[in-house]
Amino acid sequence: xxxxxxxxxxxxxxxxxxxxxxxxxxxxxxxxxxxxxxxxxxxxxxxxxxxxxxxxxxxxxxxxxxxxxxxxxxxxxxxxxxxxxxxxxxxxxxxxxxxxxxxxxxxxxxxxxxxxxxxxxxxxxxxxxxxxxxxxxxxxxxxxxxxxxxxxxxxxxxxxxxxxxxxxxxxxxxxxxxxxxxxxxxxxxxxxxxxxxxxxxxxxxxxxxxxxxxxxx
Length: 217
Prior knowledge:
By secondary structure, this protein is α/β, with parallel strands linked by helices. The protein folds into two domains: 4-97 and 181-202, Rossmann fold (3-Layer(aba) Sandwich); 102-179, no CATH class. The chain contains seven helices and seven strands, in the order ααββαββαβααββα. It has helices spanning 4-10, 29-37, 52-62, 81-84, 115-132, 137-145, 197-202, and strands spanning 42-43, 46-47, 67-68, 72-73, 93-96, 182-187, 190-195. A hairpin with a 2-residue loop joins strand 6 and strand 7.
């Protein structure tokens, strides 16, 4: 979160509010009130547990004049998010894997709810073993370092020199089809891709805004 103090000003934004809450919080009235009083226009939540459901419901029911965009909203960034929130996640933008939202980024959309676990077992490790021609540890490790294979989360899944996952939108390789975290907006019960811009345009999608008053007016 501290990195936002540097990233936001560089992109023309000011950090005007930052709040935390304990696990098990299901009433977000005071948090939304504080954010609104601080003049928040774009709220970036980082909620990795079930608290995301009452958070979104509170947002919708109070018609909070802020735009919820990105961050982590785990309980809502899944196909079941619409039912879990009774449709009150409408206009909420969440970060997620393309396959989770059933977006056909690759031809390997086989397991939408467990891609991070499924891909290594189904695609990455078998590919490395096949290229290594053995299951000997060092040989497989060397093959893994040279991985370049299509998975459900990337057309070209590769590792960096430090063994991290190479992510899309890399400034050194802007056209490479690496693993990608996308942003989806809930619209009429569907997760619609709205970032990266290229994919949003290819999908013919546009942003939608709540019907109540806010900074989008």
